[in-house]
Amino acid sequence: MDFCGEQYVVEPGTEFRIGREGDLVVDEGARVVRRGEHEVELTRTEFDLLAAMGQRRGRAVSKEHLLAAVWQFDSYDPNLVEVHVSALRRKLQAHGP
C-alpha cells in the first residue's frame, strides 16, 4: 500500500503485507485487524477502507474507487479519502516494528 500518492497498492499474498511495515491480518468477518501481535482499533470507515484496498491486492486503487466502495459516492472531494487513509496509516504505524 502506498499511502503517499493518489494510488494505493496492496501487495499480493496470503495475508496483507504492507511494504516494510510488517504483517497485517484483517478478519473481515469479525472486523478485527491485527498488526503483528497487536490488535489495531479502527473506526468503521478505516476498517472499510482497509478491506476495500485488501480486496484489490496487487492492483492500484484510485481515490474514486474508494469513495464509491466505502462511502457510495461517485463524485466527492477526494481529500476525504486522504484524511481517512492518513488516520489509518497512523494507527497501523503505531503498531508496527
Number of strands: 6
User: How many strands, which pairing sense, and closed or not: the largest β-sheet?
Assistant: 4 strands, antiparallel
Query: How much of the sequence is in beta strands?
Result: 15-25%
Distance between the termini: 16 Å
- Largest beta sheet: what is the strand line-up? 2-3-4-5
Briefly note the structural class of the backbone. alpha+beta
Order of helices and strands: EEEEEHEHH
Tally of separate helices: 3
Describe this structure as you would to a colleague:
With 97 residues, the chain is an alpha+beta fold. The chain contains 3 helices and 6 strands, in the order βββββαβαα. The protein has helices spanning 44-54, 63-71, 79-94; strands at 8-9, 16-17, 23-27, 32-35, 38-40, 60-61. The strands form 2 sheets. Strands 2-3-4-5 form a 4-stranded antiparallel beta sheet, covered by helices on one side. The protein has a two-stranded antiparallel ribbon with strand order 1-6. α1 (44-54) crosses α2 (63-71). The longest helix is centred in the C-terminal third of the chain and has 16 residues, at 79-94. It is globular, with a radius of gyration of 12 Å. Residues 1-7 and 11-21 have low confidence and may be disordered.
